[in-house]
Write a structure and sequence with these properties.
With 218 residues, the protein is an alpha/beta fold. The chain has helices spanning 16-22, 29-41, 51-59, 86-93, 113-124, 141-150, 188-197, and strands at 9-11, 45-48, 67-69, 99-104, 130-135, 155-159, 175-177.
Length: 218
């Protein structure tokens, strides 16, 4: 690397080796881990988003003494229960008594959206008081829209939102955040904190479980 005498710090973002397995190139996984160990091994410290990510790196022979947790915060002025807007929710789903299921993220198949869509279709076959809102955009959106249309289930696609149209404003009274991802990236704990600050219910994940107290999840 350039400037070998200058101390360097790196940050570990995404489990690329797991992506390789997911897309059918599992034979590349050991090679990817080796390349990442070599790259990060040349740095004085490697920053990780969570303890579970740190443990995963240790399991793949990353030097434990070089791994540090990169704690982050959340803008509580932007993500707050006070930002909830009942009228925005009703403009998208109508009935305020519906249980709102919210997905926020890139609309792409590696986010495990096939499982989300099938689970929602199954749920709609036994309940009529749920409504899925998908916030974000991506290459899987046209096919996902067609799947929901074919199965005649109610879904709202908001597209990409920012600023005063943050998806947390939807979660008035009854709402649950849906995160079915098995491929985690560096920004995922940020989203967990955003939801927690907005007091939105969510699910426990390996990468975020240490941020959620039992019985008081978001």
């Amino acid at each position: 690397m350039f400037l070998p005498s200058v101390p360097r710090v790196s940050s570990y973002h995404t489990n690329i080796a797991l992506y390789a397995k997911h897309f059918g190139y599992s034979f590349l996984s050991p090679v990817i881990w080796a390349l990442q160990r070599n790259f990060h091994g040349q740095c004085a410290k490697t920053m990780c988003p969570s303890p579970s990510t740190s443990r995963a790196l240790i399991e793949h022979q990353f030097p434990e003494e070089k791994l540090k947790i990169w704690n982050r915060g959340v803008d509580t002025q932007l993500f707050s229960p006070s930002k909830r807007r009942k009228e925005l929710r009703e403009s998208w789903i109508g009935n305020d008594e519906m249980v709102l299921l919210l997905y926020v993220g890139r609309v792409s198949w590696e986010k495990n959206l096939k499982s989300l869509s099938q689970a929602y279709i199954n749920l709609c076959s036994v309940r009529n008081d749920v409504h899925l809102v998908i916030t974000g955009d991506g290459p899987a959106r046209p096919e996902l829209e067609a799947t929901f249309l074919e199965n005649k289930v109610r879904v709202t696609f908001t597209g990409y939102l920012q600023g005063n149209h943050q998806p947390t404003q939807l979660m008035h009274r009854r709402g649950i955040s849906c995160r079915l991802r098995f491929l985690r990236s560096f920004h995922f704990p940020f989203q967990i904190r955003d939801l927690r600050a907005s007091r939105i219910r969510g699910s426990s994940f390996r990468s975020s479980r240490h941020r959620i107290s039992g019985g008081r999840r978001m």
